[in-house]
Amino acid sequence: MSELAIGILGGAGRMGRALIRAATEAKGAHVAGAVDAPGNPERGKDLGLLAGIDALGIGLENDVAALFAKSDVVIDFTVPRASVEHARLAAETGTAYVVGTTGLESGQQTIIADAGQRTVVVQAANFSLGVNLAIALTERVAAALDDSFDIEIVEMHHRHKVDAPSGTALALGRAAAAGRGVNLDDVADRGRDGMTGARRRGDIGFAVLRGGNVAGDHTVTFAADDERIEITHKAGDRIIFARGAVHAALWTAGRKAGHYSMRDVLEL
Questions:
Q1: C-alpha span between 128 and 65 (Å, rounded)
Q2: Would residue 226 be called left, alpha or beta, if left means φ above 0 and alpha means ψ between -120 and 50 degrees?
Q3: CA 14, 46, 61, 125: dihedral to nearest 10 degrees?
Q4: DSSP 40
Q5: Where are the alpha helices (DSSP H) in the chain?
Q6: pLDDT, tens digit, for every residue of 33-73?
Q7: Under 8 Å between Cβ of 161 and 215
Q8: Which of 114, 135, 139, 209 could in theory staple to 156 by disulfide, Cβ–Cβ 3.0 to 4.6 A?
Q9: How many CB atoms lie within 10 A of CB 120?
Q10: Same domain, 146 and 210
Q11: Which CATH number goes with the domain that contains 134?
């Protein structure tokens, strides 16, 4: 059985470099190539050296269409506007598509989901095994407790992150809302400042911290009178997300077209 050819979008970024390392380490796969935006000063640099490993003999490129043409699956951790175009290209070429881009608007999300009608799409706000277990646990705990338990979600990321709350925090919120049988948009409290009044029963609150080089910390708190339950995940390095995404990429081989999640990949 031939190795799976993995293409990487945003190859010069922090996640892109981690993905190059993870794909190189994975059994049954190899890096087909990686691209970044035109004008990137790293263009042409060997991908291995870019990722801090031995040279791979493949340079960073900027031709996205060519990357899709030579890849069995493409992994995308870029920005919403670019990911929409990548999803359309995946649908046109039939290339499997693994996407971890966060901060998507509803229309952008629809385009990515629709690509699953024509190819294999795996989408997740977070590809870490631990985070996906935390999401599954959050839904089960929320289903077991009534709204006398207030739900609060706190997340912290590095100073460079541009969207808030994080995609993972929102995924945890959706899991909590699903457990309670409500729509997150109807109960989310995403900002408190000044005289906000008492907390509304049944709300799911979010708090956001930014600073340093934190890869990602998330805590879901279920707080009732005199007791508190907390589900926490702390990421020490973004390589855990890259390994999870590569695991998802390997999972796409031989699958039927569809819009899948890490719950499908991990059989949660």
A1: 28
A2: left
A3: -20
A4: -
A5: 14-25, 47-50, 64-70, 80-93, 106-115, 129-144, 167-180, 184-187, 239-251, 262-266
A6: 999 988 889 999 999 999 999 999 999 999 999 999 999 99
A7: no
A8: 209
A9: 25
A10: yes
A11: 3.30.360.10
